[in-house]
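Deliverable D2.4 — example input (structure tokens):
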């Protein structure tokens, strides 16, 4: 099974960025643990701060991969383009957010991704990515 985690803007700063909201762990450290935990899966990771690059990656892998785990970060709340890309591809997309966006500012309550997603996981910290992987294993 081939899965990719796609992270959007500022998620490259995990570990340094607002640790009270996003925790102390870098995504690279977490990702190596995740790969060790799910050895049977071909798991990749891509991060970009650029909206078009995220769309390109969804298009590139969205017809061949078994699943996309997408945290579009701030673009979740602004990007019609990423929302459309999620709807355009065949590969199912699970939307993940580290924080509970509904307990935060109102502008974080709307997602352009959710209507096209297979499911949404939020508020469980980095564990959300584990849960997203499990959702693909439990077909
Ligand atoms: C986030 C929530 C977004 O509102 C925010 O802009 C992020 C991260 C999360 O994982 O909790 O950058 O997607």
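Example output (designed residues):
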């Amino acid at each position: 099974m081939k899965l990719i985690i796609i992270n959007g803007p500022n998620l490259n700063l995990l570990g340094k960025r607002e640790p009270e909201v996003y925790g102390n762990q870098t995504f690279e450290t977490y990702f190596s643990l995740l790969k060790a935990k799910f050895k049977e899966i071909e798991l990749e990771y891509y991060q970009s701060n650029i909206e078009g690059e995220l769309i390109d990656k969804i298009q590139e892998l969205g017809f061949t991969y078994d699943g996309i785990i997408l945290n579009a970060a701030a673009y979740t709340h602004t990007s019609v383009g990423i929302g459309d890309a999620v709807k355009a591809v065949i590969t199912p997309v699970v939307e993940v957010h580290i924080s509970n966006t509904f307990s935060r500012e109102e502008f974080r309550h709307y997602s352009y991704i959710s209507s096209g997603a297979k499911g949404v996981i939020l508020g469980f910290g980095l564990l959300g990515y584990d849960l997203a992987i499990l959702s693909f294993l439990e077909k």
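Residues 10, 71, 73-74, 76, 97-99, 101, 108 surround DQA (CB under 6 Å).
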